[in-house]
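Re: that backbone. Tokens:
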């Protein structure tokens, strides 16, 4: 369509501030030019890609597909990358996910191949990233090109987009620095302001693209990037709420001749991941799954499910440096009730089945579930009646 809106990307360029280097791109959105950037330690300047524009295109891709906005690049995009995105990824997503639209990418192309040899993986210190790291840290032959030598930590939205969230990111970064030092691996931390275009988006619905765009800025350094999957491969599906379900397709399509993305972790269930990592010393000091704080609160849904996993494999007490194990044991009944009530949630069916097999679920737990359900019904009815009264009073005015 001739009048279809489009976003126009300029040429990536570098700028400097104190000990940092920025990879910038001026982007025209609704005829207003905004500068978007990725921020690195200055020592990584020579590895940043300004010759082509895959990173900025990918970082905006879900935004453009959901807003039905075409992409125009004034600077080249790698031909293989563009072909895979245009011919395979975009049509497939648009056909299978209602909120995605088929868009065009208009740009010149190049076929530059970079000489990076680094192997990297994200280090959130959660179960998924810990599994990927321990699975590929010095576990392959020296010349295989499979062993990790870099860990990355990106401010790509997982901590949120507010000023308070930025504080959380920085606190988590301090913990990640200690973890990287423990592993003896170099850490690359990258900040970005691209989060600002996604303030109206649920993070989980676009997180893969935002994360994967950043390694593309470092194609002169990386040849392989491991991406930690949250789901088993047999759960592959097209899901608007979480693109991780179709990682296998995405990783193929966003790879370039210089950088291969690989999905790790879908070959095992979550409890199997926890069982694997529990053999190592690293997670007993650094495992961090919390969605609330920079350290584990032991009460949010991710902390609960991870503590239950560790309990089921008989390893929880070994993780008392990162979880409040005493609280778990003294409130065990509450954790079991939570598992029953949330047995249909992500990763919880496996936990529920194991609790049943262990005969850990007693009559008192099921009774508590029924009581909780009744309380919620009564509360809901009460709130509903108050709402109706207020609406009725408004109608009289």
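Recovered sequence:
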């Amino acid at each position: 369509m001739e009048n279809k809106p489009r976003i126009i990307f300029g040429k990536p360029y570098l700028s400097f501030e104190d000990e940092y280097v920025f990879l910038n791109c001026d982007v025209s959105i609704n005829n207003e030019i905004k500068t978007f950037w990725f921020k690195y330690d200055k020592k990584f300047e020579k590895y940043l890609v300004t010759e082509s524009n895959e990173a900025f295109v990918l970082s905006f891709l879900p935004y453009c597909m959901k807003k039905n906005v075409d992409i125009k690049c004034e600077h080249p995009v790698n031909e293989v990358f563009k072909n895979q995105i245009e011919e395979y990824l975009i049509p497939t997503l648009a056909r299978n996910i209602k909120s995605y639209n088929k868009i065009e990418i208009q740009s010149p192309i190049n076929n530059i191949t970079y000489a990076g040899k680094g192997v990297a993986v994200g280090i959130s210190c959660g179960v998924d990233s810990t599994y990927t790291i321990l699975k590929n840290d010095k576990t392959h032959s020296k010349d295989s090109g499979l062993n990790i030598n870099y860990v990355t930590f990106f401010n790509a939205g997982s901590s949120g987009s507010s000023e308070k969230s930025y504080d959380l990111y920085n606190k988590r970064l301090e913990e990640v620095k200690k973890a990287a030092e423990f592993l003896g691996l170099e850490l690359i931390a990258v900040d970005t302001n691209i989060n600002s275009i996604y303030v109206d988006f649920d993070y989980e619905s676009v997180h893969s693209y935002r994360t994967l765009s950043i390694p593309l800025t470092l194609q002169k350094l990386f040849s392989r990037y491991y991406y930690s999957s949250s789901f088993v491969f047999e759960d592959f599906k097209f899901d608007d709420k979480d693109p991780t379900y179709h990682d296998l397709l995405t990783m193929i399509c966003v790879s370039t001749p210089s950088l291969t993305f690989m999905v790790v972790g879908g070959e095992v269930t979550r409890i199997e991941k926890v069982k694997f990592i529990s053999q190592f010393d690293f997670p007993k000091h650094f495992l961090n799954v919390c969605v609330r704080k920079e350290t584990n609160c032991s009460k949010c849904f991710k902390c609960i499910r991870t503590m239950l996993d560790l309990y089921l494999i008989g390893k929880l007490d070994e993780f008392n440096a990162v979880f409040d194990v005493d609280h778990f044991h003294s409130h065990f009944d509450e954790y079991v009730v939570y598992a029953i009530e949330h047995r249909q949630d992500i990763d919880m069916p496996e936990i529920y089945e194991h609790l049943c097999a262990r005969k850990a679920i007693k009559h008192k737990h099921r009774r508590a579930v029924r009581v909780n359900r009744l309380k919620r019904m009564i509360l809901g009815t009460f709130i509903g009646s108050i709402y109706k009264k207020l609406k009725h009073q408004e109608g009289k005015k």
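The radius of gyration is 23 Å. The longest helix spans residues 363-396.
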